């Protein structure tokens, strides 16, 4: 690998992008693979990496219809936390957080993970009770969580309106100190480079237009670059999941809708970590570049239209100004949307499907960036062994038939 010195950084900065070593090969598709993964987002790339790294399965292709990380992985607000209510979820998401803690080293790629904490606010006595229960439940699972008084919150966040005159006065909150943010592109690129180094073929501009099966067993995929045969196929296409699953006759309980976010002009550091208010329906953090990053709930209307809308921006901005009135002086710089895959209980759907050799990773909705390492690790295990990893056994598609929902709507932060 190329060694970086100040001199080489300066040379690259002035090189007009010429002579750079690509981070992964531009692989032409082979006729057959042991495993084909559809979707070059974080989930697909991490699955490919762990298949190669932990299970020695390297005859693997990741097929991406656009560019790597151009879906939700490159559009999200990068909150990484494991403060989910039910043990099934907190165990899974804490495994992910632990993997994130070592990911820059594991991939030899700086994913810029910084653990500034995630603070959830309560505005009513009922919410305070809920947060107490929630943080107690986390502590019982060995996951860090701490209740915060208003005084402590106001010391941490001097710009937050903690007065009794606020429209929704804050009564307290709870914080997960190990929560944080990472650079989203770096997570995708780090996994892609590491998977490529282990022999995985990454094929961009390759849209899957059909999934081939015979006698209830997957045979491969039909793509914009021709037919590719495979013993096993995994679907990791986020908001496009129900369309893709329907190609195999599987109807999924997934609704696709736009989730929007926005950033202000950059300012000096004024915010520590992530702040979430389920009451005003907004969350906010400050990026490394200084932008104030804001978002809220997914659009109520199902759609594949990956664009913004003024009413959603107005909702989020008015919610944020309830909390941080001084931000009314900021200029909005950019907004964007991604199409998220919402499941009925706000938990992911991971594992085997009724078609032999076909696996699925979806239902991540508004929260699958934090789950990229654990989603990839556990789906790779499931594909390699054709048996669900213990951590994801509760998240199988069969839970809807069995009525074993894992309703994490509250832990999604703002209701979705
Ligand atoms: P994606 O990254 O969307 O990857 C799927 C890929 O499949 C895409 O690149 C797409 O082009 C490709 N694809 C689709 N159809 C085909 C096809 N037919 N053939 C080939 N390729 C195909 N999560 C958090 O944990 N924390 C957050 O703070 C957070 N904030 C969010 C904010 C916003 C605005 C949005 C939109 C999402 C947010 N999320 C967050 C959710 C998170 O981004 C997603 O859950 C996560 O990125 C899902 O990863 P993925 O790899 O499954 O999907
Ligand atoms: O999952 O923590 C989260 C999140 C924050 C904003 C969007 N998703």
TrEMBL record:
Pfam families from the UniProt entry: DAO
Annotated compartments: Cytoplasm
Protein name (database record): Sarcosine oxidase subunit beta
The species this protein was found in: Pseudomonas fluorescens
Cofactor(s) listed in the protein's UniProt record: FMN; FAD
Keywords (A to Z) from UniProt: Cytoplasm, FAD, Flavoprotein, FMN, Nucleotide-binding, Oxidoreductase
Primary localisation category: cytoplasm
Family that this chain belongs to: Belongs to the SoxB family.
């Amino acid at each position: 690998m190329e060694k970086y010195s100040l001199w080489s950084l300066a040379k690259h900065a002035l090189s007009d992008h010429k002579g750079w070593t690509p981070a992964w090969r531009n692989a032409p598709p082979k006729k057959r693979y042991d495993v084909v993964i559809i979707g070059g987002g974080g989930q697909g790339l991490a699955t490919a990496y762990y298949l190669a790294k932990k299970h020695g399965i390297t005859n693997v292709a990741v097929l991406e219809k656009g560019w790597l990380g151009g879906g939700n992985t490159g559009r999200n607000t990068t909150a990484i936390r494991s403060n989910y209510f039910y043990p099934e979820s907190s165990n899974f998401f804490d495994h992910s957080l632990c993997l994130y803690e070592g990911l820059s080293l594991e991939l030899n790629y700086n994913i810029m993970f910084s653990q500034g904490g995630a603070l959830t606010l309560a505005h009513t006595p009922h919410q305070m009770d809920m947060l107490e229960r929630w943080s107690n439940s986390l502590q019982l699972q060995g996951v860090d969580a701490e209740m915060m008084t208003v005084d402590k919150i106001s010391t941490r966040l001097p710009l937050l309106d903690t007065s009794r005159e606020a429209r929704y006065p804050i009564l307290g909150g709870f914080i997960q100190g190990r929560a944080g943010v990472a650079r989203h592109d770096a997570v995708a690129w780090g996994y892609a480079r590491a998977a490529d180094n282990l022999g995985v073929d990454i094929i961009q501009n390759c849209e899957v237009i059909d999934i081939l099966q015979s006698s209830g067993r997957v045979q491969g995929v039909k793509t914009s670059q021709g037919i590719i045969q495979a013993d096993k196929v995994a679907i990791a296409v986020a908001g496009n999941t129900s369309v893709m699953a329907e190609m195999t006759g599987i109807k999924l309980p997934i609704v696709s809708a736009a989730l929007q976010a926005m950033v202000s002009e950059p300012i000096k550091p004024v915010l520590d970590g992530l702040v979430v208010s389920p009451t005003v329906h907004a969350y906010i953090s400050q990026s490394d570049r200084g932008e104030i990053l804001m978002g809220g709930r997914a659009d109520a209307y199902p759609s594949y239209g990956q664009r913004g809308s003024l009413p959603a921006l107005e909702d989020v901005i008015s919610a944020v100004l309830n909390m941080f009135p001084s931000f009314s002086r900021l200029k909005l710089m950019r907004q964007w949307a991604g199409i998220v895959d919402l499941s009925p209980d706000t938990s992911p759907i991971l594992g085997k499907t009724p078609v032999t050799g076909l696996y699925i990773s979806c239902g991540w909705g508004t929260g699958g960036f934090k789950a990229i390492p654990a989603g990839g690790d556990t789906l790779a295990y499931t594909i390699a062994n054709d048996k669900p990893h213990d951590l994801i056994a509760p998240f199988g598609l069969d839970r809807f038939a069995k009525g074993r929902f894992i309703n994490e709507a509250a832990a999604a932060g703002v209701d979705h």
